[in-house]
């Protein structure tokens, strides 16, 4: 039976590119056939896994320019059963796609908020007076672009080919080493069918909430990892959405959760946190843009 991989659509998004890379990797390395299922949002892609409509989802979690993708973090916290099987790191190169004859004719630029932010300096330099309009994905507005000669979309060169649209400028992201980390997520705690064959995992992701208004409450969890010499590669706070000033903390650690020191850290961490959620231990795979 084919596996279904949910991702942010419509076709041509960077999430689809990452999902397609993973689909090919699964078939080549595991002999598993899969098909891609686009969804209108990141949250719906993850909900499809929880509801059993897809076995996997490939979702962006962090960009090297703009940082964390908050919708992914919030969804991981809210959807209790999801587990990370693998991370994919893919280079991102943005293009300005438009049917306009020149940059001078462009009045509006559409794209996902992350893409707009990743090209902010370029836009300020070459299109300082245009209106920037955020959309659900980098490809959603491409479907109506041909009719509007004053509009442009920031998306990928591959998307321009798929929709048969001209490119006015390439490589417009502000930093050439722009890359995004995607997560491969399923409902299974550990399923070796979806993972890199390895005795250990290189990273562990988790999140926790703290008792409200307790001085120094964040210091204690961080000291646990420091004292056990476990490297913390990322920490991100998100509001609990319960009360102003209350936060959740998302952590990425460079260790396998099955290691004795990580087991010790997790046991101690549970005594200092209000709610502790474990998202999985996994490896990181470099992905090629298509």
From TrEMBL:
Kindly list the GO molecular function terms attached to this UniProt entry. prephenate dehydratase activity
Q: Which PROSITE patterns match?
A: ACT, PREPHENATE_DEHYDR_1, PREPHENATE_DEHYDR_3
What are the residue boundaries of the ACT domain, all occurrences included? 206-283
Q: What class of enzyme is it?
A: lyase
Domain Prephenate dehydratase: start-end pairs: 4-187
Q: In which pathway does it act?
A: Amino-acid biosynthesis; L-phenylalanine biosynthesis; phenylpyruvate from prephenate: step 1/1
Question: Does the keyword Nucleotide-binding belong to this entry?
Answer: no
Supply the alphabetized keyword list: Amino-acid biosynthesis, Aromatic amino acid biosynthesis, Lyase, Phenylalanine biosynthesis
Q: What Enzyme Commission number(s) appear in the record? A: 4.2.1.51
> Entry's InterPro entries?
ACT-like_dom_sf, ACT_dom, Chor_mutase/pphenate_deHydtase, Preph_deHydtase, Preph_deHydtase_CS
Q: What NCBIfam families would the database entry show? A: PRK11898.1 (NF008865)
Q: What is this protein called?
A: Prephenate dehydratase
Q: Which organism is it from?
A: Plectonema radiosum NIES-515
Q: State the organism's lineage.
A: Bacteria, Bacillati, Cyanobacteriota, Cyanophyceae, Oscillatoriophycideae
């Amino acid at each position: 039976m084919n596996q279904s991989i949910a991702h942010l659509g419509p076709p041509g998004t960077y999430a689809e590119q990452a999902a397609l890379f993973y689909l090919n990797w699964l078939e080549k390395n595991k002999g598993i056939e899969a098909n891609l299922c686009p969804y209108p949002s990141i949250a719906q892609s993850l909900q499809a896994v929880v509801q059993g409509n897809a076995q996997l989802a490939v979702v962006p979690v962090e960009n090297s320019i703009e940082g964390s993708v908050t919708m992914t973090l919030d969804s991981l916290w809210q959807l209790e059963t999801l587990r990370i099987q693998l991370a994919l790191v893919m280079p991102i190169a943005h293009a300005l796609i438009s049917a306009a004859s020149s940059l001078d004719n462009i009045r509006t630029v559409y794209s996902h908020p992350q893409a707009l932010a990743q090209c902010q300096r370029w836009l300020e330099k070459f299109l300082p007076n245009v209106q920037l309009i955020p959309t659900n994905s980098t490809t959603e507005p491409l479907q109506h672009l041909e009719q509007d000669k004053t509009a442009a979309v920031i998306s990928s060169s591959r998307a321009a080919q798929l929709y048969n649209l001209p490119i006015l400028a390439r490589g417009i992201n502000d930093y050439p080493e722009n890359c995004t980390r995607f997560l491969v997520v399923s409902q299974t705690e550990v399923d070796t069918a979806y993972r890199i064959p390895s005795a250990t995992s290189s990273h562990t992701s988790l999140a926790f909430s703290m008792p409200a208004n307790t001085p120094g409450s964040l210091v204690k969890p961080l000291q646990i990892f420091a004292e056990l010499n476990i490297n913390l590669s990322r920490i991100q706070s998100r509001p609990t959405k319960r009360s102003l000033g209350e936060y959740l903390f998302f952590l990425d650690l460079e260790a396998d959760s099955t290691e004795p020191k990580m087991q010790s850290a997790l046991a101690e961490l549970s005594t200092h946190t209000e709610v502790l959620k474990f998202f999985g231990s996994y490896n990181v795979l470099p992905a090629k843009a298509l």
